[in-house]
Every structure is written in C-alpha cells, then in structure tokens.
Amino acid sequence: MNIKLHTPSSLKMGSGMGSMKQFMLSILATTVSIALTFGTAAIIDNNKKENEKHQILMMVLCDMKASLDEINAADSLISGFVDAQAAFLANPDSLETEGYMLMIYYNELNYNKTVENIFNSNIESINTIGNINFVEKASDFYRLREYYNENIAKEFAKMMENGNLTSNYDSLANSREMAEDLRFVSATRARMLMQEYRACRMLANVSDEEMEAYYESRMKLEDEIMHNEKERAVLDSLIKDRKVIRDKLEKAYQEGRLKRQK
C-alpha cells in the first residue's frame, strides 16, 4: 500500500526563509518609522531652538545699534558744543545776542534698558544663545553704555544746567576745560562701543544687509506701537472730555428742572 505524506506548506523548502525575511523587513520598517518620528521631532526641536537663538541675538544687536545711534548723536552734540563754545569765547560780544543758541546742544540719552535687563537677568536667554564669547562681549557693551550715560552724557547735561553758560562769559570760559575733556572721553567711548557692537555682530554671523533689514522692521514696529499708544491717548482724552461735557449738561438739566418745579 502506497501512502503519500503531505508536508505542510509552512514547512516546505524556502517557506521558512520567506517568513524570516518578511519578519526582518517588518522590524526594519518599524525601526525606520520610529527613527523618522523621533528624528523629525528632534530636527523640528533643533530648528525651533536655532530660531529662538537667532531672535535673541538679533534683539540684542538691534538694541545695541539703537543705543549707538543715540550715543553717536550725543557725541556729535558734545563736539558741536565745544566748537561753538570756542567761537563765542573768541567773540564775547556775540554771546549776549546769540548765546542762547548753545542750548541746541543740550541732550539726554533716552535709550530703553528692557533688553539689557532681560539679557542680564534671564539665565535661560543666555543658555539659549549658547555663545559665551557673544555673551561676554554683549555684557561689555552694556557696561560701556552705562558708563557713557552716567559719566559723560549726564555730566555734560549738568555742566549745561549749572551756571549761565548762554549769557555769562566767565561761566562759559570756566567750563571750557571740562567740555574739552568730555569731548575726548565721549569720542573714545563711542569708538569702543562701536568696536564691541561689531565684534558681537561678527560672533553672531549677521551680515550688514540682515541687520539693516531687521533694524528697519523693528523701528517701524516700535513707531506703529507708539502711534497706536498716541491714538489711544487721544481717544481716552476725547472720551474723558465727552464725559465731562455730559456731566455738565446733566447737571445743568437737573438745575433747570428744579427751578421749573419751584
């Protein structure tokens, strides 16, 4: 009697190899899927961190540039005052009639310290930047800016406020040496601030074009904010005025009503 044995298909030659291959492909697909998921998330997270870093760098650089614009303007005013002072001292008669023109050189720095305070007090921002050289240079810039404000700008303002520089020859003459010293120190510190700013920009790898574009957009935004604040102030004033007028009309109406009742 002939008996035929049937081998299960799962045990036929090669079927085990096929199953193993399919199993390995499944593992590989799962591994790739996991890698892609976590890898994409890591890339997105890294891009987000890089964007945050760049925004902080640009914010600090923009603040530096705005401060430099003010300091350079103050430096020009101090230098202009010294030249005008020399002209009036050489021609005392003109002091009585034109001495008041010296006041056009009076100036006070009006920069905003918000960015500096955030930069100095927020360790998270410093960690986000992750560039110790930039952090050190930026700190040096802010120290120099504070020095300029306290020891040059404010001292120049005090000099112009004390005495009668615009009308008294002796007062103007006595301030000559101090004014010349302030001009020298002002020019020196302004150059140092510019050097620190340029070093920070180089460390941040920011081009002239990118800096100018960002600076213009930031200034435009600040102008819009100030404009909106002025508009709100005007609107609040109008509302207040209308309320005052309404209250007066109401009071007049009530007074007239009481008189009619009598």
Verbal overview:
With 262 residues, the protein is mainly alpha-helical. 82% of the residues lie in helices and 0% in strands. The protein is built from eight helices and no strands. Helix 1 runs antiparallel to helix 7 and helix 1 packs across helix 8. The longest helix has 76 residues. It is elongated and about 110 Å long. The protein starts with 14 loop residues before the first helix and ends with a helix.
Any low-confidence stretches, pLDDT <50, length ≥5? 3-8, 39-44
Tell me the helix content: over 70%
**SSE string, helix = H, strand = E?**
HHHHHHHH
Strand proportion? under 5%
Number of strands: 0
The whole-angstrom Rg is 36 Å
In this structure, how is the largest beta sheet organized?
Answer: none
Mean pLDDT rating: 77
Instruction: Name the overall outline.
Output: elongated
Cα end-to-end separation? 139 Å
Secondary-structure content class: mainly alpha
Oligomer: single chain
What's the number of helices?
8
Task: Summarize this entry quickly.
This protein is an all-alpha fold. Helix content is 82%, strand content 0%.
